[in-house]
Amino acid sequence: MNMNTVARRVLRWIWGPNREGIVLTVLVVLALVMSAISPAFFTVSTLFSLLRSSIVPMIYALGVLLVIISGGIDVSFAAIASFASYATIVFQLGRGINIGLFGSFAMALTIGALLGLLNGYLISRFKLPTLIVTLGTQGIFQGFLLAYIGSRYIAQLPDGMASASTANIVSVETSTGVALLHSMIIPAIILAIAIALVLSRTMFGRAIYAIGGDTESAHRAGINVKRTQIWVYVIAGTLAATAGMVYMILGRSANPQELVGHELDIIAAVVLGGASIFGGRGSVRGTILGVLLVQLINNSLILIGVPSAWQRAAVGLLLVAGVGIQALAAKRGTRLLRSKNAHADHSNAAPQAVEG
């Protein structure tokens, strides 16, 4: 393999449909800049802190990725996470029982799947706009949770979950103390690999891309659009519930109002990772890079003392920039396609004119 071939492949990866190379480049440059500004940034403790802060957004983003690829927008995932995890905790504490860590996850994931099923049914059955449906169900889920299940802060988790709160897989001695990497990063990695395999190796994954690209064409190709949409939202609800449980475990407490309000960060991360807001495109690799970029920006702004209001503004600007770039790329692609079609029509018309 010569250097020209390698260069072409690198450029194709950087400027490919998902733009993952661009996100990676920005991520590396930002890390180097922060290291120059603050030497304390480039340490094991900072790395572990970045990874820990990325666990919950990563699991959220995997579900949002599936929805966006299918051509939808989901803003109810945080409300589902809050409902499923908090209800699971209240159920155990209220009845004085302990169903263990796996039992807790099983209960929360079942609740998340049912709430996701409601989203998917409303969207596929009545063909309603996904943003409007999930915006409505977000309010319903959160309102029902606070009104009928509880709104109080819970400082002590059930024993099965509490034992997982202190479980770490890596411990490194540093000059400032001990850097710990929490065990909850393992389910996040497993889920990322599973979703990547589903999207790239299964007919279900291809169906998601096809629906996002063109629903009518997917239907004519024999894809069961309604069933696929329902399953997308069921999986998204299950992933949201998983993220909610992981969040409660990492925080060692339960608050039903903490999870809602960070939806913008997740959607921005998925879009920055190359997923098209118009559907039909996206990858797990790009989503991981997008999540890391957003978390790195937030952590960097905190480190240099930027107020939290400006952090929200920065993420909003990134989202607008990401969508703007996609819109320009789509417009450019449409122009190129029209130009090629016009050239082909002209080429086909020329011989006919000679024969006449």
Automatic annotation (TrEMBL):
Cellular compartments per GO CC: plasma membrane
This protein's UniProt keywords: Cell inner membrane, Cell membrane, Membrane, Transmembrane, Transmembrane helix, Transport
UniProt-listed CDD domains: TM_PBP1_transp_AraH_like
Localization per Swiss-Prot or TrEMBL: Cell membrane
Keyword Nucleotide-binding: no
GO molecular function, one term: transmembrane transporter activity
Domain of life: Bacteria
Predominant place of localization: membrane
Keyword field contains Amino-acid biosynthesis: no
Transmembrane parts of this sequence: 21-42, 99-118, 179-199, 230-250, 262-280, 287-306, 312-330
Membrane topology: Multi-pass membrane protein
Full protein name: Ribose transport system permease protein rbsC
Organism lineage string: Bacteria, Bacillati, Actinomycetota, Actinomycetes, Actinomycetales
